[in-house]
Amino acid sequence: MHPSQEEAYSTALAALGRLDLSPDPDFDRRLAAHFPALFTELSAVYADHPRFLDELAATICLARRSYDARAAELKALDAAREADPAWFQSNRMLGGVAYVDRYAGTLQGLAAELPYFEELGLTYLHLMPLFRAPAENSDGGYAVSSYREVDPRLGTMAELEELAGRLRRRGISLTLDFVFNHTSNEHEWARRALAGEKDYENFYWIFPDRTLPDAYERTTREIFPDDHPGSFVQLPDGRWIWATFYHFQWDLNYSNPAVFRAMGGEMLFLANRGVEILRMDAVAFIWKRLGTTCESLPEAHRLLRAFNALCRIAAPAMIFKSEAIVHPDEVVTYVDPAECPISYNPLMMALGWEALATRDARLLAQAVERRETLPPGCAWVNYVRSHDDIGWTFADEDAAELGINGFDHRRFLNEFYVGRFPGSFAQGEPFQENPRTGDCRIAGTTASLAGLGRDEEAGIDRILLLHSLALALPGIPLLYLGDEVGQRNDPTWRQRPGEAGDSRWTHRPFRPAALYAARHDPATAAGRLFLALQRLIGLRKSIAGFSGGAVRGFWTGNRHVLGFLRPEAGGILVFANFGDEESLISTHRFDALPEDALDLVAGQMVSLREDLRLPPRGFVWLALGIA
Ligand code: GLC
Ligand code: GLC
């Protein structure tokens, strides 16, 4: 017999009672509101497990202890965010991402960059993983050895907390990763598992021989084939352990409810340090079932919703951002207020680069038309590139409708962006090129992929064009800091141990001090980029029509030109010319529109009773309903 919700709730309340704490109306209200969701999701996953009720009760107790330890300022934020759940839909939102060590040396050093973050207009700052991690190679910090300790080279947890507070008081939400699919092999749980402690062996997927690993690998995909084939690595004692990514990143075993409870505790610990947006790393991989790809299984969604419910109970100011870099049909399955209300938009990212290479905006236009709309209460995070490689995650079915073969097209795009395709402007590098499967992804900074080093004029245009889309599409724009001054690839990664095998380090360079120093000088490429982006950011922040999530495709009749309408506040019409020539949109496309519109970027009126001409790689934002 599976336990009922009533039984589970009274078990949890009894356990809470034994803590001997006085009732807290806010906690009790939130518990009553979100316990049903927590129970529904967890019982669907764990009802058959003998320890299910105990672990659930223990989870509720840790939620209460965590809530009690939460700072008053964060509790006030909890209430404010509950009252305004749409806070992240604002047109004033702007994200930035950086590695602490590469951008500023230490957390203290980063505090010195606050004036710059304000100059840029950031309202959210994603600091790349900054936890204790293996010394030489930690997959850029994504192999976490302790979720409760900052890497001593960067600073301390107290400094992180203090930085979170300083950011918050300036209206900047701290974003950190929750690397919850795996720990490093140096995490205490991993060490104890390796030492043969049963409780901790059960935190991971460990097999005595190759039988089950072979069976699983018949259907799983290879993620880091340069590091090891398949999904498993061998332990010194001859057993095999699940490691989807690097051999030192061991996948956690969420079929064990103690793992959910333990990671729930780590999550709430981070929430209490002042994290406001939690980037849910590698969400697709957290549940495994034989005979499947072991990606995006229903239980992965249930666990995310359970983590979310736990967060609503004990730290409701914090929201989840999903990192699912998968087929577009699958990406959206994570985007839900009860799961991850915000999500990377890898499709728009990849298709922006696709359109630059082909000079053809039709795949992009099709995606805006059919793949941009999210459920209410959710938002995309629009970015030009991240710390990771670019993979061509468009749907083959969508491409086929335009007569494009997905496999061939990906091969072309890879050739193009590593600069092997004749006439390519791009200066990227291959990442995890797999000759066996023909698979490959792309590394490179925005400036290098856009060919800034080959042709400055065209390179600047391309960088601005892609950013203009990230700033005009519905959602939160996210800048990779350094891109806004045109930072190029860093070839020195090949000499650094721990990085040499991973070409993504080419696009994770150190803070470009000289480029930043030139950012106000319009005679430099850095200055031209920065000043133009600053203007676009300012415009976006001043125009209410850029808030919220509504968008409609606008077919331009010209395959080089993407068009879409943001219908709020009178409407903003956006056009982006991916052609290397001037492109024209015929006036009859505007028949249903007012006669005149305000070109927001140029600051002048344009007549829609004439054809609209866009310069090579140019874009416009037209405010309708102004005249
Ligand atoms: C995510 C990170 C990536 C990392 C992987 C494993 O995809 O973005 O950098 O390698 O997870 O944690
Ligand atoms: C794979 C994963 C993605 C991760 C990437 C890291 O593509 O699907 O989650 O970001 O590898 O390179």
UniProtKB/TrEMBL annotation:
SUPFAM superfamilies: (Trans)glycosidases, Glycosyl hydrolase domain. GO terms for molecular function: amylosucrase activity. Signal peptide: none annotated. Residues 97-540 form the Glycosyl hydrolase family 13 catalytic domain. It holds the Pfam family Alpha-amylase. SMART domains: Aamy. InterPro entries: Amylosucrase, GH, GH13_cat_dom, Glyco_hydro_b, O16G_dom_2. One of its GO terms (biological process) is carbohydrate metabolic process. PANTHER family: ALPHA AMYLASE CATALYTIC REGION (PTHR10357:SF213), ALPHA-AMYLASE FAMILY MEMBER (PTHR10357). This is Amylosucrase. It comes from Aureimonas endophytica.
